[in-house]
Design goal:
Blueprint (H helix, E strand, L loop, with lengths): L3 H11 L24 E2 L5 E2 L10 H34 L1 E2 L4 E2 L4 H11 L6 H19 L23 H11 L6 H10 L6 H10 L2 E4 L2 E3 L4 H15 L3 H8 L9 E3 L7 E4 L3 H7 L4 H8 L2
Antiparallel strand pairs: 1-2, 3-4, 5-8, 6-7
Helix pairs in contact: 2-4, 3-4, 5-6
Length: 294
């Protein structure tokens, strides 16, 4: 049998040192392998990322930004040069180095070669000049276009959402009772317009149509009205302090409005606000009940 002295020595030898009360173990978060490309912000927040490539540095972002700016500058300079060539073609040039009148295309090519290093090649300068003049002549066939601006996309067909005939038809069809987007689509197809349901939904939203459930008002009976009158009369007899103490723990709810649940009961309502749409969506029997119960 072991002596108490040996047992005490064993306990002292195996006992771990007790950390101080204010000591906290530092938690080091090491992301998993799939988060190897994670990064930390300036504030030390770790942003977990599963992207295959490492996030771009500030230098790489600046290079990409400068590349976009260079492309935009090149596009603007190209449009400005095209307008300059059209102005020379219309009015000519009168400077110390060049003297020629309008519509002298060979001299315009020489002028472009001398003033723009990127068009020093005659073939490149000739191609640019003739393409710019052709665009100018095509633009002259449509008088509503400005010849001295980039007219790319001006003759593009307007989308169906902006087509006045389609918008008028959708407005008339959605105003009919029990109108739905599939019904409107079939009706438009009979009129020769093939329009998707998504476009019809967008046109309906532009026209302030909303898919709304009908509402009805809960009409109170004579007995219910009498109970409410007695209840309010008793409250009015109390002092303000007594009334506040009595109604302080109550929960007030709106028992007036109820909706008719069901997908088939919804319809399109044209209104500018939610309150107006709610009023227009009431069932016609409400007016009859209100006339019976004044």
């Amino acid at each position: 049998m072991r002596s108490p002295t040996n047992q005490r020595r064993r306990r002292l030898r195996n006992r771990q040192p007790t950390p101080p009360a204010n000591h906290r173990a530092r938690i080091v978060f090491e992301p998993k392998l799939k988060y190897a490309n994670s990064s930390r912000t300036e504030n030390g927040v770790l942003i977990l990322s599963t992207r295959k490539r490492a996030p771009p540095t500030e230098a790489e972002k600046e290079v990409k930004r400068q590349r976009k700016v260079a492309v935009k500058v090149k596009q603007v300079s190209l449009v400005a040069l095209r307008h300059k060539i059209i102005a020379i073609y219309e009015h000519g040039v009168h400077t110390n180095e060049f003297q020629f009148g309008p519509q002298e295309t060979p001299k315009i090519v020489q002028f472009l070669q001398a003033t723009n290093p990127q068009y020093a090649d005659k073939a490149a300068a000739k191609s640019f000049v003739y393409r710019a003049i052709k665009r100018h002549k095509v633009a002259q066939e449509t008088p509503h276009l400005d010849a001295f601006r980039d007219c790319r996309g001006e003759n593009r067909v307007s989308p169906k959402r902006k087509n006045p005939e389609i918008v008028t038809l959708v407005d008339e069809l959605l105003s009919e009772p029990k109108a739905t987007a599939p019904k409107v689509k079939r009706a438009l197809l009979r009129h020769g317009h093939e329009v998707s349901k998504q476009t019809i939904h967008r046109i309906a939203q532009d026209l302030c149509f909303r898919w709304t459930k009908p509402w009805y008002t809960d009409i109170l009976t004579a007995a219910q009205k009498l109970k409410r009158k007695i209840f309010c009369r008793e409250l009015l007899r109390l002092t303000p302090e007594q009334m506040l103490n009595r109604i302080g723990g109550w929960l007030f709810t709106d028992e007036k409005w109820w909706d008719i649940v069901g997908p088939g009961s919804s319809r399109y309502i044209k209104a500018l606000s939610q309150f107006e749409r709610k009023l227009l969506a009431q069932v016609n029997d409400t007016v009859l009940h209100m006339a019976i119960w004044p």
